[in-house]
């Protein structure tokens, strides 16, 4: 935690309060304090911003000029090598993960099914629920004790990081090779693209997901590098799958590059197929926004439980696990047994492996369609739902039960202290109701039920995650059916539009609930009515170009600011001159190295580049940075001076105080800043009147300064779920 | 042309010189004059920047506040409606275009082939060459007289426009509905996405192309809107194709949603297939960069011819047409006739329609494989090359001849005064050499020759256009083979990397040759060594908040600046105050409306919002703006005053003079600016020391100010084509 522990504004505040506040009302509205806390995993973390801006001071410029071609080549080569390694490692991890899931969960279902065949139902339930319980316990203990940030899907955390939010729990294992936040950001972007690419074997979809959903900044070089990374993933995965096709991967043996192949040459649709597809889109939009709404509420309740102690967390996870086991084991008994079709495409009932026709409790020659869905891994369930030529395989009631089970179980199991995704549950849920709609439309349609399931999955993804291009490509890469593209686009269009009328993207809701100070792309309308001068709050801390050591130590110890303007004032210059900005971390390094001058004039011939190298100022991994509290200085040293000029960034971004907040936000976000200097519009005053940070752009901060804006009519118009809101 | 005609720096300069200069040395290096010319089509156009920045003055703010919800809704609805219309119109145009090409060109080939069947070779040649000649003449006359900007592919022009470059020839038909450059930019982006979507029936590829290659700025809202537009395209096209499948579209009858379907379930490849694919990538990279190099040189020669007169232009186009006809008709005679295979998938020889086996001059039962490629439309030639199960259909020599023909013909026919694309010719060329490589590798590979052709097309596209994700998706959408994805990614990766070592992206080369002042994403390394103070050149023109009419008129008449800082100075204020910036167009409107004050003090109670509405300042379509020369003012009026405050943008973007040029460029480009105010670092001076525009960031301008940087070692390392360079 180290330097990141920041006292909240009121040190006597109820500790419980500080946890619940971000959940209930977003951020604390304390003017110009940097006290922001986020809930990462189930921990409360103080929040810092990241230094994405290139810091240009004399020392760094000299270092840069002195670099030879070889060093530049090495640097470039290193960046590409890291991308290659990320691609390689992520695809290995993804593959092993897939292999483990397919084999562990597959084995669990096979063993249970075999016991069911022998009609040892009690024993089967025990094996089923115990294996679930043990796996959950294992996962939640690891998560709770070792990597609390790993709970949940991780996507909101990465998204916040790429926006410039640094909650120290997010990346505990920061590589030491990368020296600055900017390079790290690029690698994290490539990594997130690679993650999606490996999880869904969708390399192009991975790049697009990183671009559309994750990244706050984008440049063409990054597109190129993340394409490289996912290409590595695609090639490595392809090689592994080649290996598996020869039957060496146990139950995973049939895994191809395309997960749910629904290609059928005969797919053709006409104008009359459009209305049911439109209906699917509308339903998907409503269900998706409802899903987001409920998930956020459940997360809020869970965080109340989780914050109590690790024991509570694990207890919660285990209870959910037992509840789930009972539900999953009990539900198939509701379904009536159906006779095996004569022309079944595979053995019926399916025994000893995953497949379409699970026997469960049924007599020989019969199968239980609900068990076929529930007693399979998620991947197999999706494959069942997407498959063509199976229009008569499922009953209406079974599909409906399965839909409700998935919908609510996935919401309730997300917030527990264990890593869990959103993508796959949403696809299963969407596929089941899509198939249900297909069954209702029945013979009036040219599309088979499997294709309806695909469109249903697309609509719920669109309604919950609100992406367009990347979802489109991911679905294409998952299902391998390009002919369906116009319909998928239509469904995504409709479901996103409908869902946007109710609430936001699921990842944004989770980020907000966790309290990350995320900078939105769009300025709120009231920001156009305010100027930056209206939100800057004092007092401004600044240093002189030649500053007394004691002053620096005092300011660093009493404030938590991370950037300080440097102003040269008389007598050192004729009139106030803005020299630039200096970072806290650099000041601490200077104090630690004790590069002091005995007098405030520069006759000593102080040479920065001789005493320091750029490496001295490279950012350490989080938690390893020096703290001001650790530096001991003698009384005599406190009276000495430091020449800050060589370490001052002479290229600070600035705005005039009359600049509208909306335009300042645009600059802040597009360029990726941490500090923005506010300069006066009148020449004669001090060259800097304030400093803007991420915090100053947060709606909560602005509204606390200007409460009359709260009720202004510029709020985004949205429908609410009024009845549901009362439940929570 | 109107206000866009800007005299070049030296009015006595040879007019020919002003045309050739941008081609030969990029831009003129005249310090701080806005005299930039571009060659759009074959016309020389003066260049302006676009006002993408939101202009925030009191009047607009008041107008914005007074808007009701209905108006905001109307505005939003209008934007979506326009996107819908763009999608609809583009898909209609694209479809009709396709229909016309397939039927016109198809008919030409069928008629010629029929004459060949009757062995009337002379007549066949006459029909063939005359129809080519007439079509070319028609196209070039239309282009030369009506829409000179339509020559070439149009993509470089749109790319420059989206970067903020406004050469008036680019969009002659500016819609009057859209009132500002910012909204227009969004629509142009959506339009370009729709264009690619319609041309290749690749809706997702279209969005990505617009994102990766065209757009200089991007926001998620734009992704969403362009996705909407291309979804409309996809649905409309799908409906038309449905119509055509019932056989109502003549020769176009078989056009499906996927243009070149190469789906084959049996596609499987292993490690031993990687080396030939890598080789394809390397060759594609070299050929692609060579293609770009040659195309640029040819464009340069053509522009020397084209600038002479319209007659020369049309003559050039017609000569190229005749030369092409002779070549295409003569070449198939070189190929030996091959006997029809016994198990041919279609009738051999193919008679009366396009197809795989053209008879040409061959005896019955034989076919001419080169004629099968040449005497088909481009689409059919690609389909032939991509087709599977045709590994024995082509001879090595025929494919090689076809490759060279395509490679050079497409280069020579691009620069003539007629609309021409680059995508399809590059695909044909790439497919032919890919197929050739496939034939060389032959039985040692698991991939059939058709798949090699696909990979070859990918490699040449990658080598010439240097896109990654969008090309990947476009190729997938064209060929419908997702299993090939890892190999396509590999090929694109290698070909782009190889080609980047030689030269730039083809569209960038064309833009440079045309003289567009395009702002690059990356700052040149020497920009990090310069501060903005080093490139700002005087004298700075500024106005006071209350300014004399005569002064304004004088400055507007004697300079061509488009933005003027407004400074309030004593006695109107105690010390100099930076009020903001005002645009030339707004000043002209004020002068025209004659909203003058008789005295320089504000006792008159001047009320801007009563006299003006925001609509008065909306940007007209180009050429319709008022000019300062058209405004007549009496001697008395010249002595009056204007209060500029309500029309001043109080939110100008600013940089300190010590800011490094690289960081200022980042701001300028990321935020999309036209003017950037430079403020002094010392408080006591005037609040503004200069103004930066696009021109000040152009390497040519900077290097003319600091010639010692030309030979600095920071230039990008690239291999050259030394021997070839001497040829031109």
TrEMBL record, chains A, B:
The highest taxon in the source lineage is Eukaryota
Q: Which GO terms describe its molecular function?
A: chloride transmembrane transporter activity
Q: Which UniProt keywords apply?
A: CBS domain, Chloride, Ion transport, Membrane, Repeat, Transmembrane, Transmembrane helix, Transport
State whether keyword Ion transport applies.
yes
Could you name the Gene Ontology cellular component terms for this entry? Answer: plant-type vacuole membrane
Transmembrane parts of this sequence: 77-101, 121-147, 187-211, 217-237, 277-294, 314-335, 399-429, 450-476, 482-502
InterPro entries attached to this UniProt entry? CBS_dom (IPR000644), Cl-channel/antiporter (IPR051280), ClC (IPR001807)
User: CDD domains from the entry?
Assistant: CBS_pair_voltage-gated_CLC_euk_bac (cd04591)
Where is the CBS domain positioned along the sequence?
647-708
Write out the similarity annotation: Belongs to the chloride channel (TC 2.A.49) family.
Quote the protein name from its UniProt record. Answer: CBS domain-containing protein
């Amino acid at each position: 935690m180290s330097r990141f522990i920041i006292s909240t504004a009121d040190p006597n505040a109820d500790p419980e309060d500080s946890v619940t506040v971000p959940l209930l009302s977003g951020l604390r509205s304390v003017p110009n304090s940097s006290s922001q806390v986020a809930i990462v995993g189930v921990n409360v973390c103080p929040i810092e911003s990241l230094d994405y801006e290139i810091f240009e001071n004399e020392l760094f410029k000299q270092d840069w000029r002195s670099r030879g071609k070889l060093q530049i080549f090495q640097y470039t080569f290193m960046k590409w090598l890291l991308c290659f390694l990320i691609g390689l490692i992520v695809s290995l991890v993804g593959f092993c993960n897939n292999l483990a899931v397919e084999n562990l969960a597959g084995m669990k279902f096979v063993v249970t099914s075999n016991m069911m065949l022998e009609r040892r139902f009690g024993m089967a339930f025990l094996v089923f629920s115990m294996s679930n319980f043990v796996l959950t316990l294992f996962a939640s203990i690891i998560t709770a004790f070792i990597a609390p940030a790993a709970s949940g899907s991780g996507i909101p955390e990465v998204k916040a990081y790429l926006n410039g939010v640094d909650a120290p729990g997010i990346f505990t294992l920061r590589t030491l090779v990368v020296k600055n936040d900017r390079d790290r950001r690029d690698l994290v972007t490539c990594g997130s693209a690679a993650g999606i690419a490996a999880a869904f074997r969708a390399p192009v979809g991975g790049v697009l997901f990183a671009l559309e959903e994750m990244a706050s900044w984008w440049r063409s070089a990054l597109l190129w590098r993340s394409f490289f990374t996912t290409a590595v993933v695609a090639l490595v995965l392809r090689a592994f799958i080649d290996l598996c096709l020869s039957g060496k991967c146990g139950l995973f043996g049939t895994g191809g590059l395309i997960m749910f192949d629904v290609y059928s040459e005969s797919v053709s649709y006409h104008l009359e197929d459009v209305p049911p597809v439109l209906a699917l889109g509308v339903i998907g939009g409503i269900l998706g926004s409802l899903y987001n709404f409920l998930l956020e509420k459940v997360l809020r309740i869970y965080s109340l439980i989780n914050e109590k102690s690790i024991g509570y967390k694990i207890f919660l996870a285990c209870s959910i696990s037992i509840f789930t086991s009972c539900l999953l084991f009990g539900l198939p008994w509701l379904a009536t047994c159906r006779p095996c079709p004569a022309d079944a495409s595979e053995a019926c009932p399916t025994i000893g492996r995953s497949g379409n026709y699970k026997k469960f409790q049924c007599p020989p020659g019969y199968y239980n369609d609900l068990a076929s869905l529930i007693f399979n891994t998620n991947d197999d369930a999706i494959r069942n739902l997407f498959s063509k030529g199976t229009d008569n395989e499922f009953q209406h009631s079974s599909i409906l039960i399965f839909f409700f089970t998935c919908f609510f179980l996935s919401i309730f199991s997300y917030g527990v202290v264990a890593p869990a995704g959103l993508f796959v549950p949403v696809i299963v849920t969407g596929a089941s109701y899509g198939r249900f709609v297909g069954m209702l439309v029945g013979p009036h349609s040219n599309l088979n039920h499997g294709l309806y399931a695909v469109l249903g999955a697309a609509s719920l993804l669109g309604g919950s995650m609100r992406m367009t291009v990347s979802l489109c490509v991911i679905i294409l890469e998952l299902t391998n059916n390009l002919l369906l593209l116009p319909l998928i686009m239509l469904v995504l269009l409709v479901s996103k539009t409908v869902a946007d009328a109710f609430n936001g993207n699921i990842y944004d809701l989770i980020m907000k609930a966790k309290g990350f100070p995320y900078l939105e792309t769009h300025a709120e309308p009231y920001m156009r009515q305010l100027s930056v001068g209206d939100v800057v709050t004092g007092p401004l801390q600044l240093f002189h170009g030649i500053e007394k050591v004691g002053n620096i130590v005092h300011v660093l110890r009493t404030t938590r600011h991370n950037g300080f303007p440097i102003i040269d004032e008389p007598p050192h210059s004729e009139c106030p001159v803005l020299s630039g900005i200096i970072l806290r971390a650099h000041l601490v390094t200077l104090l630690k190295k004790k590069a002091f001058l005995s007098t405030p004039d520069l006759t000593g011939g102080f040479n920065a580049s001789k005493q320091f190298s750029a490496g001295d100022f490279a950012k350490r991994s989080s938690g390893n940075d020096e703290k001001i509290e650790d530096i001991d200085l003698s009384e005599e040293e406190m009276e000495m001076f430091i020449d800050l000029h060589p370490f001052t960034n002479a290229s600070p971004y600035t705005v005039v105080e009359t600049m509208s907040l909306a335009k300042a936000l645009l600059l802040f976000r597009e360029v990726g800043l941490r500090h923005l200097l506010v300069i006066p519009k009148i020449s004669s005053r001090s060259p800097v009147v304030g400093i803007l940070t991420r915090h100053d752009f947060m709606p909560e901060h602005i509204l606390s300064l200007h409460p009359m804006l709260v009720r202004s009519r510029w709020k985004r118009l949205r429908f609410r779920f009024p009845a549901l809101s009362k439940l929570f």
